[in-house]
Amino acid sequence: MMSPFEKKFGKYAIKNLSVVLIICYAVGYVLQMMSPWIAGLLSLNPYAILHGQVWRLVTWVLIPPAESNILFMLIMLYFYCSIGTALERTWGTYRYNVYIFGGMLFTVAGSFLLMGFSYLFLPEVIESGGGGNLFFARAAVYFSTYYINMSIFLAFAATFPDVSVLLMFIIPVKVKWLGVIYGVMLVFSFLQGGLFTRFAIAASLLNFVVFFLTSRNMMHLNPKQIHRRQEFKRDIRRNMGGITKHKCAICGRTEVDSPDMQFRFCSKCDGNYEYCEEHLYTHMHVKKQ
């Protein structure tokens, strides 16, 4: 069964959320080219938010990852869009939305926690740094979408560990090893970085920690197996004249309704219960009394 939250809010989930994020970045790039100082009015500055600039709670998402090389930036955005779309198709739109917006919410909360910590334990540092607005304007640079994007990559590496990518467009490397390398770099940055860096890393990647602890059963998926199953279902539809072989026990969709949808049986449910990809990991397991 769907969770109560999914039943109530699932219909509001944004499809192709990765594409929406890329569009937000594109808007941010245009704004920065038109007015280079605009980022200072959009950034996640908790001091400014509490003094009336509430739009910053949302507009910081428009600030794109810093990159001077336009070509590399386009390649990077395409890469994140691709892996984000793959995660959405595997997890389902609702779960992917929860993951992304959870990361954003943790980032906003982290910026305010940093503000509270600084006023409680470092008031003299704030004053020496030019006062609250200037001090937290510098901190806002660290609370960006950079670590949100990194959390997408880590989730992809955990979900599809055996997928290979071309490092520098030449060397094939399994994505799980890149995830391990990046994880080590994050730990090093956290230990060696300053106060701003530590709060930003902890806040932005907390959603991945929650995902890792609650979704280990999703880390065995193999895209090649998914592709073979999709081809198998297409063959069945052609040979059986449209007779359905798969049906989700939650929403009732079949391979005829959604040709690209994956259907899998749940090994933890008592009985032959099959679910679509959007409900495979979110349903409540059926247990015989």
Question: How would you describe this protein?
Answer:
By secondary structure, the chain is mainly alpha-helical. The chain folds into 2 domains: 14-218, no CATH class; 223-276, no CATH class. The protein has 14 helices and 4 strands. The protein has helices spanning 4-9, 17-34, 39-42, 46-50, 56-59, 70-91, 93-121, 123-128, 132-140, 146-159, 175-192, 195-204, 206-214, 223-240; strands spanning 164-167, 171-174, 263-265, 274-276. The strands form 2 sheets. It has a two-stranded antiparallel ribbon. A two-stranded antiparallel sheet has the order 3-4. β1 and β2 (171-174) form a beta hairpin. The radius of gyration is 22 Å and the shape is globular. Residues 218-222 have low confidence and may be disordered.
Write the layout of secondary structure elements.
Layout: H1 4-9, H2 17-34, H3 39-42, H4 46-50, H5 56-59, H6 70-91, H7 93-121, H8 123-128, H9 132-140, H10 146-159, E1 164-167, E2 171-174, H11 175-192, H12 195-204, H13 206-214, H14 223-240, E3 263-265, E4 274-276
Q: How much helix is in the residues?
A: 55-70%
Would you identify the regions where 5 or more consecutive residues have pLDDT less than 50? Answer: 218-222
Label the structural class: mainly alpha
What is the helix tally? 14
Radius of gyration: 22 Å
Biggest sheet features: 2 strands, antiparallel
SSE order, one letter for each helix or strand: HHHHHHHHHHEEHHHHEE
